[in-house]
Amino acid sequence: MENQPAENQQISKKKKISWGHLVIWIVLILFLIVLGLGLLRSQEGPIGINDASPNFTLTTFEGEIIKMSDLKGKLVLVNFWASWCTPCEQEASEIEMAWQSYKNSDKVVFLGVDYVDTEPEARAYLQKYHISYPNGPDLGTRISQSFRIRGVPETYIIDQNGLIQFVQIGPFRSSSQIQSVIDSLLNQ
Asked: What is the pLDDT of residue 23?
């Protein structure tokens, strides 16, 4: 009878160890599932021509909330950039010049998505290049992940029906290149 409390303690320890192992296995399995889903998504590659645009929400540096779903019926240029990106600097003025041609149009919207950056550097970049179209940070890289971008700069032009019609990997060379693409899509 004296051994009974010692036996109960040993059984209790075994139960605690079993629960501990179970929790570790559950965490490990969940980690592997998340990792597997990430690998599957990365193998999908970037989104491309005629793919539906991801439905995203961009909160600009000024606090304006822009939802892609609210832009249906408009041509939308989405540019991914970062203040630390030298090729982004090469195209910044070109995109702004193109924006100046369309800013009074109710048919075209430009959006800048700041990728993996700090707000002070991003704001300095926008000021340096006199960028006036709406820009905001990609908090948690949610927007760039939905587009499955490979780097910056990358630009997507989305038609009035929400389909991607043009993808530019790397910097645009001129504002006329941008305008040519937009004008041809507007005239379809």
From this structure: 77
Dist CA 120 CA 77 (whole Å) = 24
What are all long-range contacts of 119-122, with beta carbons under 8 Å and residues at least 24 apart?
Answer: 119/61, 121/83, 121/84, 122/61, 122/82, 122/83
**Against a cut of 0.85, is the pTM above it?**
no
The token duo for 133 is 């179209």
Instruction: Return the beta strands (E) in 27-163 as ranges.
Output: 57-59, 65-67, 75-81, 108-114, 135-137, 154-158
Confidence check: pLDDT of 4 > 60: no
Predicted local distance difference test score (pLDDT) of residue 14:
57
40: pLDDT strictly greater than 90? no
- Written as one letter, the residue type at 180 is S
pLDDT-based confidence at residue 139 (cuts at 50, 70, 90): very high
| Separation between Cα atoms, residue 164 and residue 78, nearest integer Å | 10
**Which residue did the predictor score with more confidence, 48 or 121?**
121
Contact status, residue 104 vs residue 68, Cβ threshold 8 Å: no
Inter-axis angle of helices 86-102 and 119-128, nearest 10: 60
- How many other C-beta atoms lie within 10 A of the C-beta of residue 72? 13
- Long-range contact set of residues 121-124: C-beta below 8 Å, sequence gap at least 24: 121/83, 121/84, 122/61, 122/82, 122/83, 123/61, 124/83
